[in-house]
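Researcher: Sequence recovery benchmark, item below. Answer with residues only.
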């Protein structure tokens, strides 16, 4: 049986497939393949391992005549047409859990960097513009004692909440359902989206990208936020309406905005780069050696399970 992987992933995963006697081919270039190149790659394969940068729409899925399983090397699977996969009896698996703490760490790095203006400070040093410690120089916002709003208290949202507890923050969260265990652990309070927007000093987004969450944060929602709010997004760029974001940045609504994800990745909206209080990282939430290895292992092990006729551990559809 054959597996096509759209980009090089850690060897640990590929070994699992090869040790089981599967023929593995990896897209040869170190870049995002085009749709045509993916279609070409999956013509005669039983399994596809895709990345969040690969739009796996119905054209692609239907071109895989022998395809039985798609393993997404990510926890987010908004890049895959699940309905189409289901209709064709193709299973989809992903990589939940193993990247939770890693992504929560990056989120907290952004919360701290945005609050304490770390990147602005570094730029001042590099430009040789630091004139010495001064009482009113580069003043940030307090993290300790401030209110963190978590939008989407799933695995990553809750892991961010646990970190926030250690930092002495008050925690509010909004999600589809209440999380009693999380509340017990962190004293977090379940609130409506409106309440979350109105009361958070720092708002961090952890919902998946779905039809309901596309542009969930737009003009009305930003208007409701506190003046001087810090907005952090490590979920998916399309959850924030970037046009609205830019508009309110111009109006001075935000103390800072920190994004690990943005609309139209990898192309950054040039408007965003004009603001010193916008901090952007290049989608590195899960980017540690250990986590990327684990992601490779769990996605390949699950693809193998499906090919052996077993039930996968992390089935999406
Ligand atoms: P998860 O455990 O499924 O958590 C998502 C949470 O969002 C769920 O708890 C769900 O609430 C809530 N939710 C879903 N739709 C909602 C809606 N319309 N309104 C309010 N809440 C809603 O997923 P996760 O593992 O934490 O990952 C979250 C997302 O992070 C992924 O989908 C991915 O896009 C992103 N991510 C980014 C990076 C990065 O590199 N920056 C890395 C990993 C993941 P209920 O539980 O109440 O149903
Ligand atoms: C990364 O963004 C993921 O969804 O795993
Ligand atoms: C700052 O460096 C202080 O000593 O207060």
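Model:
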């Amino acid at each position: 049986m054959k597996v096509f992987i759209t980009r090089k992933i850690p060897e640990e995963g590929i070994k699992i497939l090869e040790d089981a006697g599967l023929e593995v081919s990896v897209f040869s270039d170190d870049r995002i393949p085009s749709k045509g190149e993916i279609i070409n790659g999956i013509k005669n394969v039983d399994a596809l391992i895709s990345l969040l940068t690969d739009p796996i729409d119905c054209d692609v899925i239907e071109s895989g005549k022998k395809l039985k399983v798609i393993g997404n090397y990510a926890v987010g699977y908004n890049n895959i047409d699940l309905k189409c996969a289901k209709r064709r009896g193709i299973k989809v698996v992903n990589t939940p859990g193993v990247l939770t703490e890693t992504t929560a760490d990056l989120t907290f790095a952004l919360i701290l960097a945005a609050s304490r203006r770390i990147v602005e400070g570094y730029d001042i040093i590099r430009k040789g513009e630091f004139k010495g410690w001064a009482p009113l120089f580069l003043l940030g916002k307090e993290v300790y004692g401030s209110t963190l709003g978590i939008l989407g208290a799933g695995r990553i949202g809750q892991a961010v909440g646990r970190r926030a507890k250690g930092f002495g923050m008050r925690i509010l969260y909004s999600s589809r359902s209440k999380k009693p265990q999380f509340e017990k652990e962190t004293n977090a309070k379940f609130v409506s989206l409106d309440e979350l927007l109105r009361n958070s000093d720092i708002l961090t987004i952890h919902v998946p990208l779905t039809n309901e969450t596309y542009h969930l944060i737009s003009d009305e929602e930003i208007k409701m936020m506190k003046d001087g709010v810090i907005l952090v997004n490590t979920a998916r760029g399309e959850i924030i309406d970037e046009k609205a974001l830019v508009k309110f940045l111009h109006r001075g609504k935000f103390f800072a905005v920190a994004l690990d994800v943005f609309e139209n990745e990898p192309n950054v909206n040039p408007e965003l780069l004009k603001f010193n209080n916008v901090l952007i990282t290049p989608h590195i939430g899960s980017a540690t050696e250990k986590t990327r290895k684990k992601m490779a292992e769990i996605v390949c092990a699950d693809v193998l399970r499906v090919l052996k006729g077993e039930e996968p551990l992390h089935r999406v559809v």
